[in-house]
Design brief:
The chain has about 280 residues and is an all-alpha fold. It contains twelve helices and no strands. The chain has one domain. Helices cover about 75% and strands about 0% of the residues. Helix 2 packs parallel to helix 5. The chain is elongated and about 60 Å long. It starts with a helix and ends with a helix.
């Protein structure tokens, strides 16, 4: 069998094993689903409020946006945190020492993080449709839109996660990156329509993928008249495709370069030094 094919198969198997472990470990389950559940509770209490007399429920507007946030946040933060953890415990060094090991490692990480993001999105959507209402998937077009937005959203955010993770040597320091990411969430129309924000914040929010993933989700799940609360009263499918596509291209071009440079710096001594620092913090 071709060595590259073997690496791909090994990576897929590794990703599935990691995904199974995430769903069978109580602490992992709690950490992965606490915030999605808490967000659903908040949207439940918003379901009877409408946006500026539009007749569109804030809960219904927020549900597709939260799905987009989960995809983006899990894609970026999940890969970044996993990469930092694997650098500290030597997993990345062992992958580097194996023929095509980095290829298998990255495929495994993409598989596990993508599976987790899609599972979270499916559960939140199913529960949200029952408890909050106002969203639907009753046409082929809606399903197709949901599918391409999910796929392109993951492609746009997973490489970003790899780039971010390669910049941090410790999983503890990765937590700091969550603050600017949550800042982007706040100005990306997730919990409140972006049209209610000042113009300069609208412009900043539209630079990054989170807003566009949320917009694509809303276009798939909300009734047609909900477009009235969007910028330009349009779902802007072409712009969504172009912006997410641009982030995908940039990420796929930069991520391999950054990861190769990071891998070249990995050594037994660097892993040992990081472990020693971690032990000192523990005591």
């Amino acid at each position: 069998m071709n060595p590259m094919t073997m690496a791909v198969r090994a990576g897929l198997l590794r990703g599935l094993i990691e995904l199974r472990q995430a769903f069978t470990n109580g602490m992992d389950l709690f950490s992965q689903f606490f915030w999605p559940i808490a967000t659903l509770v908040a949207l439940f209490f918003m379901r009877d409020n409408t946006f500026q007399g539009s007749g569109v429920s804030l809960g219904a507007l927020g549900l597709p946006s939260v799905l987009g946030m989960l995809v983006a946040f899990t894609g970026m933060f999940g890969v970044a945190q996993g990469l930092a953890l694997d650098r500290e415990d030597g997993t990345l060094l062992r992958a580097k020492a194996t023929p095509n090991g980095m290829v298998g490692y990255l495929i495994g990480k993409i598989t596990s993080v993508s599976g987790l993001a899609l599972t979270q999105a499916a559960i939140v959507l199913a529960v949200g449709m029952l408890l909050i209402g106002g969203v639907h998937l009753d046409t082929v077009g809606a399903w197709l839109t949901l599918a391409w937005v999910l796929l392109l959203g993951l492609l746009a955010t997973l490489p970003l996660g790899a780039i971010i993770g390669s910049l941090f040597e410790s999983p503890r320091s990765i937590g700091f990156i969550s603050f600017p990411i949550m800042g982007l969430v706040a100005i990306s129309g997730v919990f409140y329509p972006i049209t209610g924000l000042p113009g300069w914040l609208q412009a900043v929010g539209q630079v990054f993928p989170i807003y566009w993933i949320g917009l694509g989700m809303r276009s798939a799940l909300l009734p047609g008249d909900a477009v009235a609360v969007e910028l330009g009263q349009s779902w802007r499918h072409l712009e969504t495709f172009l912006v997410l596509g641009a982030w995908t291209v940039v990420g796929l071009l930069l991520a391999p370069i950054v990861l190769r440079r990071m891998a070249r710096r990995e050594s037994g001594s660097s892993v040992a030094a990081r472990r020693e620092k971690a032990m000192q913090r523990a005591y």
